[in-house]
Structures are given as structure tokens and as C-alpha cells.
Amino acid sequence: MGDAITKLSPLDPPVTASDSPPVTQATFAIGDERTASRIVDAITESYPSHDLAIAAFEAPGGRWDITMHFGEPPDQDFIRSLVTDTAGEAAASSIVFGTVETKDWVKASLADLVPVSAGRFIVHGSHDRDRVPTNKLGIEIEAALAFGTGHHGTTRGCLLLLDQVLNQRTPKRVLDLGSGTGVLAIAAAKALRRRVLATDIDFRSVIVASENAHLNGVGTLVEAVHATGFHAPDFAANGPFGLVMANILANPLRRLAPDMARHLAPHAFVILSGLLPHQANSVVAAYRGAGLKLLKRIQIDGWSSLLMQRR
What we know:
Distance between the termini: 46 Å
Structural class: alpha/beta
Helix content: 25-40%
Shape: globular
Strand order of the largest sheet: 11-10-9-12-13-15-14
CATH superfamily of the largest domain: Vaccinia Virus protein VP39
CATH architecture of the largest domain: 3-Layer(aba) Sandwich
Largest sheet: 7 strands, mixed
CATH class of the largest domain: Alpha Beta
Mean pLDDT: 83
């Protein structure tokens, strides 16, 4: 196996095959990496994230094998329509649907993922724990708890920008907004050895982030909280923040700009991602209107990540 494109979601982790129902699996192949990446993005943008895991792996000969797993039986016509819109009818007609035991698809989705390096950080699975270089800060994400393994361009972009920020400044108060598995919160906590607030609108993601923080030895530093927007008292209690990381989507990022600005310390850094390239300018404009300036924009695997700073 070569490189991988992966988007995993916090499906309830199974205990045994006997007490967990099988999940629906859909498999097909595509001819090139760009199309495979577009398919992964299209499906993850259009399908409920709590019910889907999707991975694309490079196979011998340059073919890309795409595998999807669904916690509930999907609308097969809808999935085929998404693939048709992205890659054509031939690709959509080649999709094969079936069922597999729950415990098997988790391993199948992530067992072949290689560690991902981003600046001082390296994100890896438990099977690669011994491969983390001594000069890197390892972030271990268990396969069964996946929603953000570091392989997605948005996570890698955020980690690279976080590394850049930490090379310039040591923020005292840090927020990971929309934390998912907690990768960014764990990275900041490991590098700074300071408390980090991690919030998510999905309660299961909050549990996942907390468990991953303990797995990575920063359970006492990462405070995982279930919250929507900036309406929980935890934000006022833990702010104002010198660094905010928000790897979510363009529309909520634009809406959150004024509220986020009110929770920032002077000269605070803000890392934003989850943006398609054509969405980046409108997000930059929203945050400029809230008093921030753009410092850097990077693009990885078709996703844009922004580094901004409060004026």
C-alpha cells in the first residue's frame, strides 16, 4: 500500500462481533489519486459524519481502492449519485455493497495507515507506536475511535500552522474548537505542557477526545467539553485565548467570527481549516471584519488552512 486518504467518524466502537450488528461496506476502484480524493471529499461533505467511515488506498499499478463503511444501511442510490457527480457513471456502477462484522472494518480501514508527520508532530496508530522518532511529538489515535487521524489535509495543515505558531510564541490559553478526536488539542498540550480546552458539538466526539488525551498522557491537561459555538461558561472561564484552532467548515467558521474575536487575547493567533480553496477568501473576509489579519494560507490535498492574528 502507498499513501492514503481517510475520513473516519466516531461510530460507537464495538465490543465483540456477537453483540454488534454487521455494518454495510461499499467498495470500488478509481484510476487516479485526484479523483479518489475528490470522491472522499464529496461523500464526507454530503453524508452524515456520525455514520460514515471512508478510506482510499493506493493499490499496485496506480489504482486507488475506496472502501466505505456505514453504521446504518445507506441509501445506495444516493451514494451512487454522489460518485456519478464526481467520477462518472462507470465508477458509480462498479460500487459493490455488502456487509462485514463491525470489529473487522475498523481494522481494515486503518491498519495500513502510515504515520503522518507535520512539523514537530507525528500522528500514528498503536501499531506504529515504536516507529515515532525521538525528535517528534507522537500523537496516537486508536483506530476504533477515529474521526481525524492526521491523514486528512485539514488536520495536517492545522498541525503545520500550530508548529509555526509555537516557534514564535508560547500561548498561555489554548482552545480547540470542534475538536473531533482531539488531535490538535493533544498536540498543543504535549508541546506546551499547559491546559487546553477542547470543545465539540457532538457528545461522542467529546468522549473520544478525552479518551485519546488520556491515551497520550495529557488527560489532565486536555479539558474536553460538549458545547455549541461560544455559549458555554467554559469559554469565559478559560479565556481569553492566545491561540484558537478550529478545523470545522466554512459556514460555521464565518458565523463564529464575531464571537471568537470577543474571546481572543491581544495579538492572539487563530488557525482555521475545513475550507475548500474557493471558500477561503470569504472566511478571511469575515475574520478581517472581526479585527484579525491573515498571516499565512496553505493548501494540502485540496483543502485550505489559514493562520490569522488579532490586530
